[in-house]
Structures are given as structure tokens and as C-alpha cells.
Design the sequence.
């Protein structure tokens, strides 16, 4: 499996920055599609 740590750090950092939920959802979808490859 690929390492997801770079994306996962971004994914965890976004909510802490107070980003809109839509952006968080986009990141979540990106992480999921990345992990599934």
C-alpha cells in the first residue's frame, strides 16, 4: 500500500484551520480515492 502520511497530515490540518466543510469533504474524498488505488 502507498503511504498516506502527507495527504493525511493535510486532511487532519484542514479542520483545525477552520476551513469550510465543503473543502474538508473534498480532501476526504481525495484521501479515500488515493487509498483505494
Sequence:
Amino acid at each position: 500500500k502507498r503511504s498516506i502520511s502527507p495527504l493525511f497530515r493535510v486532511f487532519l490540518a484542514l479542520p483545525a484551520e477552520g476551513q469550510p466543510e465543503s473543502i474538508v469533504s473534498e480532501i476526504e474524498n481525495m484521501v479515500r480515492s488515493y487509498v483505494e488505488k
